Amino acid sequence: MLKVKNISFSYNKTPVISKVRFEIKPGENVALIGESGSGKSTLIKLIYGQYDLSNGEIYWKEQQILGPKFNLVVGYEFMKYVAQEFDLMPFTTVRENIGKYLSNFYPEEKQQRTKELIKVVELEEFADIKVKFLSGGQKQRVALAQALAKQPEILLLDEPFSNIDNFKKQSLRRKVFKFLKEQNIGCLVATHDKDDVLGFADRVLVLDNHKIIADKNIEDLYNNPKNKLIAAFFGEYNYIEPFGFVYAHQLKIVENSKYEAQVKDCYFNGKNYLIEAVYQSESIFIENENKLNTGVYISFEKK
Ligand code: ADP
Ligand code: MG
Fold first, then answer.
1. Quick one: which atom of ligand 1 is closest to the CA of 84?
2. What are the residue boundaries of the ABC transporter domain, all occurrences included (predicted)?
3. DSSP code for 65
4. Does 126 lie in the same domain as 14?
5. What pLDDT is stored for residue 40 in this prediction?
6. At 86, is the pLDDT very low, low, confident or very high (cuts 50, 70, 90)?
7. How far does the centroid of ligand 1 lie from the alpha carbon of residue 29, in Å?
8. What residues make up the domain containing 37?
């Protein structure tokens, strides 16, 4: 169990993390979301022991995580961290990079584990290519596999799929998060991408203004966004007096209702159309199956 107990931290004098507390159970997938600059990467680095805390304590099971002042070599066997900027050996192959920390005393296990991880991150074709020839996204996948090699108990991931193109992203996410669940590896995933969260996170922490403003299971957070930061994270949303926060897909266009608006724009979004309409002189967004023309008057309701 990871226990983050009331921690605070400042770079020089500027506070970045203030009285943050939460826990992560073994094997649990926890997402850490927040705007760019909200302190996600800093919080992850604090948990890894990269900086000294101003206040509070962090534990994994019975072991206290200490900063560089008290622990000369940053990092622990049971906890691995994949940074936004990753650190690989460019002149050696993907296979060698991934196996780097595995013991040569067990060559068969080493070979087997390396092979398994290459498959998880979908780099079979590149196993014997030198890392310097890889794209940013491929390097990110090598770093991920390297962190998993010695089976940590908890993994800290900072924007783990940010450099990976859309063609690969979804299948890679499924493979990696499934692998973590199977091996009972807990993870904390800092992200600003809802697709890293939906379908995978057991719980979500929302970081805003140096603090955790929500710590909820994913369904609760999604279904009852309590502010516009949370609503905006998940998609196109509105704040309409009688309904509170409603997503564009939670409104529908009907024949008659007391809520009337005028169509301003219409965007094809793949699944259907996103209608931008003016309601009480403000823009609102409604998802609709059909295309609508600018200027048309519509009535809408909450589904
Ligand atoms: P996020 O990962 O959510 O984008 P960061 O943790 O990277 O946020 O940054 C949080 C705040 O701390 C930002 O205002 C950033 O400019 C500042 N910051 C980050 N790293 C440093 C550093 N090494 N020194 C001073 N300020 C920093
Ligand atoms: Mg960051």
1. 2
2. 2-234
3. P
4. yes
5. 96
6. confident
7. 24
8. 2-228
